[in-house]
Sequence to fold (458 residues):
Amino acid sequence: MSKPDQYNVEIPSNEVKDSNIKYFTTYTYGCQMNQHDSERLAGQLKSIGYEYTESLEDASFILINTCCVRESAEKKIYGKIGELKNLKVSNPNLIIAIAGCMAQKDKEKLFKKAPHIDLIIGTHNVHQLVEIVKEFEESKDRVLAVWDQAERLAPDVPTIRRGKISAWVPIMYGCNNFCTYCIVPYVRGRERSRPLHDIIEEIHQLGLDGFKEITLLGQNVNSYGNDTKEYGDFADLLKAVDQVETIERVRYMTSHPRDINDKVINTILNSKKICDHFHLPVQSGSDAILKMMNRGYTTDYYRELVRKIRKAIPHASLTTDIIVGFPGESDELFQETLEFLKEIRFDASYTFLYSKRSGTPAATMTDQIPLVVKKERLQKLMDVQNDISLEINQQFTDTVVTVIVEGPSQRDENRLMGRTTTNKIVLWDKQGTEEVGQLANIKITTAQTWILKGKLID
Ligand code: 5AD
Ligand code: SF4
Fold:
């Protein structure tokens, strides 16, 4: 079961729920950029008088922000959209809006598949929600707002945030890479960098509002500034962000291994606030597959990059994304990926079954891999990676790590959660002296594959 998004706003209790107030709720699928788009959509709804609720039944506006990077996400979302049909029957005034990458890809086809949808909002139209709602209220007719291309720069809109401590800040939109499996360039358009001044201003303000950590977002952050000569490059941006006094930590995602360079590595090395965590999606450990994926690098190039990073910042953590079952991936080529994983020893790998996305070059490649084979390979990959992750995490046992206290863990109110600069999740039993947003030193007692557990020390 998917859960509604949670925002850092007060939720009215049942007793004070006012029948004159209109409530909205949102469900978001997919990447951080999509999560942040929901924050901007929710902010706009709040600006026209809607209040947030977690309850589908109380909502008079339900927004689903969608992802189409893999078929499995699409299936789940269609299921969710189907579930809303009954609500619409019992409340004909309910407004149902579909935003995000599926909206951009399928456009009016969504109306045909699910006639109970009222609004379809493309990835380039997020900033227009207020106008779209107004148009709907005036015309009482469904609205399709899907531009084929983005404006160079979408204007800023009111935003409400998910967290209190950590915030997302987009630095660029779109992707020019056209990896052969990937739908993103088709639904998010060409690369557009946000003005440096706007980014710095937003981060400064977030710091004043109490946020401690920001994550710079982009499909390919290393291309920052490539589309215009006005703002410098990604390293220049990192240097400028590092100097924003009001915040403590800076993360970024996602990097393309081909575009991360010595200047970026040195900037991170010499920075005070940029976290020592590198997420560098390798996608495959086979040169033949990397070529077919149009990734623009070889395994030797990647090895050298990792060597450089580890030489410059030995304690940095390294994570990756891997796709198994790309067309033409033989057992031997898959074995190369397994060996590569063992050689590089990533802290963590996010592993995916290749999913055929129509319209992408890989969808029409011959030698598509059967699902059962893909699943077997995924399992093998995860087994190898889990062992490595555990071994790496065990090295932290009995050491002291520093985290920013983010709040209670998802499962247990009495347990707190924080992350290290290397992005390790740390849990400990609440002592009562901790304050959300403060730094805490934790002595690690138990290491697991995905998390570290420990005790607060003074
Ligand atoms: N099938 C499977 N995984 C994909 N990704 C992108 N497109 C596909 C696809 N068609 C993965 C990549 C990317 C991550 C965000 O999603 O590994 O890095
Ligand atoms: Fe997709 Fe490749 Fe662009 Fe990443 S870099 S969004 S995988 S096309």
